[in-house]
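Possible regression after last week's pipeline update?

I re-ran a chain I had predicted before the update to compare outputs. Posting the input and the new output here so someone can diff against the archived version. Not blocking, just want to make sure nothing changed silently.
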Amino acid sequence: MSDTPFFHDASNAVRFLVTVDGRSVDASIGKTTLHYHFRTGDNADPLETYASHAEEIDAAVRRRLAQGSTPPVMLREHDLRSTG
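New output (post-update):
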């Protein structure tokens, strides 16, 4: 997989890498999840939405891994909710 995030048409998701403990982990987040959570329009570019919120999204991947998920990590809307 490329180091550069990209939109994968077949899965309707942005695919990206997150570095965790010196290794790259494959992850993805669906276009619908991006638009719903970040309140963007349906026609918003999912790559732009990802780029604008990459830190928060990458942190969600790290949380999922810390909770025992195995790669690749597919984020869902509840993964992005504040942990309090």
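Follow-up from reviewer: compared with the archived run. Residues 38 and 65 are 22 Å apart (CA to CA). Marking as no regression found.
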